[in-house]
Write a structure and sequence with these properties.
49% of the residues lie in helices and 21% in strands. With 161 residues, it is an alpha+beta fold. Residues 92-95 are annotated as: Involved in Mg(2+) ion dislocation from EF-Tu.
């Protein structure tokens, strides 16, 4: 099956992987999008593993408060009962400002608010709330591979009332 520009564009938008990698993955998968995604994920995790020795001295602090509950009218009964501060690191300020890094920070904050891990190690081993087939470590690894830099969760604090 011939891979079209539209196929490449669609998969690139979904995965944020480099264009040529998307093209090669689609060709290797015979045009099967699900198989191409799996191949891209594997490649991203391999790239991420090779970058773990690098210093991740930049990054961002993410803050999140979770609104809980809801009345019969749809308005919240409780507001701001759970909060998270996350120190997410990468190698450069440029990468810290990317959409991929920003989205990763938000997703990890939601994970922490929802699952209340006791440590970074426990967090990394948890099933990702949006996709139980993945662990949080895999989510971070995919972002690292996509971004081309070492990305790591340095620390976090979860507050609840």
């Amino acid at each position: 099956m011939a891979v079209t520009t539209e196929d490449i564009k669609k998969l690139r938008e979904e995965t944020n992987a480099p264009v040529m990698e998307v093209k090669h993955a689609l060709e290797e998968a015979g045009g099967n999008e699900a198989e191409a995604k799996r191949l891209l994920t594997e490649k991203a995790l391999v790239r991420a593993e090779s970058k773990k020795a690098r210093e991740a001295g930049d990054g961002m602090i993410f803050a999140y408060t979770h609104n809980m509950g809801g009345g019969t009218t749809g308005t919240p009964i409780q507001s701001g009962k759970v909060g998270v501060l996350l120190d997410l690191r990468c190698e450069t300020d440029f990468v810290a400002r990317t959409d991929v890094f920003q989205n990763l920070g938000k997703e990890i904050c939601l994970q922490i608010a929802s699952m209340n891990p006791a440590s970074v190690e426990e967090l990394l081993e948890q099933e990702y709330i949006r996709d139980p087939e993945k662990k949080v470590d895999g989510l971070v690894g995919e972002a690292s591979g996509t971004l081309g830099e070492h990305v790591k969760i340095e620390r976090f604090v979860r507050y609840d009332i």
